[in-house]
Amino acid sequence: MRDGHGECDHHTVPSPSQGRSSVSVPHHAKPRTTAVVLAGGTGQRVGLSIPKQLLKIAGKAVIEHTLTVFQNAEDIDDVIVLMAPGFVPDVEKIVAKAGLTKVTRVIEGGSTRNETTERAIAALGEGLAEGEDRNVLFHDAVRPLLSQRVIKDCVDALDRYEAVDVAIPSADTIIVTRTHGGDGEFITDVPDRSRLRRGQTPQAFKLSTIRKAYKIAAGDPNFQATDDCSVVLRYLPDVPIYVVAGDEYNMKVTQPVDVFITDKLFQLASTAAPRQADEAAYRELLSGRTLVVFGGSYGIGADIAKLAEQYGASVYALGRSTTGTHVENPEHVDDALSKAYAETGRIDYVINTAGVLRIGKLAETDNTTIQEALNVNYLAPVQIARASYKYLAETRGQLLLYTSSSYTRGRAEYSLYSSTKAAMVNLTQALADEWAGEGIRVNCVNPERTATPMRTKAFGQEPDGSLLSSEAVARTSLDVLLSAMTGHVIDVRQQDPTSDVSGSSGFEQALASVLDRQEDVS
């Protein structure tokens, strides 16, 4: 865990060819890898009465986001949490509710940073056979944007090295200062920025190495650590510390502005819905289930209905042109849900793809058009959600809403559409949190420009291949419905075959996509 400045000096280390025996680790069977999530912060700098790791961002506690990253990491076998004193039960509830099965222990941290780490090391050593070692990754609980790539790089590096840090280049000039009485601070040095890195977490070690470093440090009466790599550097100077490239967005939630930025990053980031193994899996999961699709007359809604029916679901596809269902009329919504429930005895999924796209300058838009946009694009989803609640609570089902790629960046002449679609994201996150206790999942699909009748009406015919197919969006929508996800915004994009994004993270792709949306509205 880093200090409040988040900085750490890093030195170039000799390569293995320079002959140090401590550089390389003998190759044996891959040891067990444990992530230790350090959650001892109090939240004082953010101005909170609770630890900042319990603060909710994008509908979930910060620590839940962080633990979910490790839960989904193939290279992590188990997770231990060191929590601020007095708040262990809070984390245990989060772990149980979220089904974070890799979390094996939640331990109360110590009164100091040193004591917390020593407790973690002691817990990691329990049950190990003589001579047995394990990999350990220490990570700040308040860095919830950690990428799977960084985790994998750290674990892979432990095949060769005993200590691994994560860092990024410094875009800012770093200065060294001294205080001169009451006159303030003065610069004493400006280090070469090309050799400076900003330290992040995780920091990865062989357990035997970090344990030995802390054992030696215990004999130093002046020992104090805010950083585990610095302990190895100081007390085991012959052990090289390899540096893995971090991510700029792997930020630490420390200051109030960090809360805002992190929340926005989660809102922008795409989430991939897990696909089922084969057609039989879709059939098994959907057979006997009931779907109610508002906006099911054509486009994405009709394609969802068609797919789900093929897999054995009972589907009620509703729309103005087919069933006379007006989503902006609460009675129509209630009647549709009541009928589906009366005929099948259950409602597992409620989907709303209905929407209207009206383009024009707000000052020149009449009241009727404004009211229509608000009724269909905002109030209707709210009414559908409220009416669906009792049915979805019975089946622990899911509500699926839809936003637009314009929600992150309002554009001239799209004020009504973009603003109401942005509201769907906030509604999704709020309801996912509000309904979590009943087991109801709420998600939002964000398709890029899609070939639908609504779009054709607004923009006319567009070049072949320039738009997503409604069938592709429908397929992703089914994957979301069948997943355990909740509170997510799932982007559906048409991949540019000329772009190499194989090494990009979801956050990098999402940010690039946002910048590219200035010309596009779906």
UniProtKB/TrEMBL annotation:
Annotated site residues (Positions MEP for the nucleophilic attack) in this chain: R193, K252
Sample GO molecular function, one term: 2-C-methyl-D-erythritol 4-phosphate cytidylyltransferase activity
Basic and acidic residues bias locations: 1-12
Top-rank taxon: Bacteria
Transmembrane segments: none
Biased composition (Polar residues): 14-24
Pathway the protein acts in: Isoprenoid biosynthesis; isopentenyl diphosphate biosynthesis via DXP pathway; isopentenyl diphosphate from 1-deoxy-D-xylulose 5-phosphate: step 2/6
Keyword Transferase among record annotations: yes
GO process annotations (BP): isopentenyl diphosphate biosynthetic process, methylerythritol 4-phosphate pathway
Keyword Transmembrane helix: no
Keywords per UniProt: Isoprene biosynthesis, Nucleotidyltransferase, Transferase
Region (Disordered): 1-29
EC numbers for this chain: 2.7.7.60
Catalysed reaction equations from the record: 2-C-methyl-D-erythritol 4-phosphate + CTP + H(+) = 4-CDP-2-C-methyl-D-erythritol + diphosphate
Marked site positions, Transition state stabilizer: R45, K52
Coiled-coil portions: none
InterPro entries hit by this protein: IspD (IPR001228), IspD/TarI (IPR034683), IspD/TarI_cytidylyltransf_bact (IPR050088), NAD(P)-bd_dom_sf (IPR036291), Nucleotide-diphossugar_trans (IPR029044), Sc_DH/Rdtase_CS (IPR020904), SDR_fam (IPR002347)
HAMAP family, per database record: IspD
Family: Belongs to the short-chain dehydrogenases/reductases (SDR) family.
Function in brief: Catalyzes the formation of 4-diphosphocytidyl-2-C-methyl-D-erythritol from CTP and 2-C-methyl-D-erythritol 4-phosphate (MEP).
Name assigned to this protein: 2-C-methyl-D-erythritol 4-phosphate cytidylyltransferase
Organism: Streptomyces fulvorobeus
Lineage: Bacteria, Bacillati, Actinomycetota, Actinomycetes, Kitasatosporales
Gene: ispD
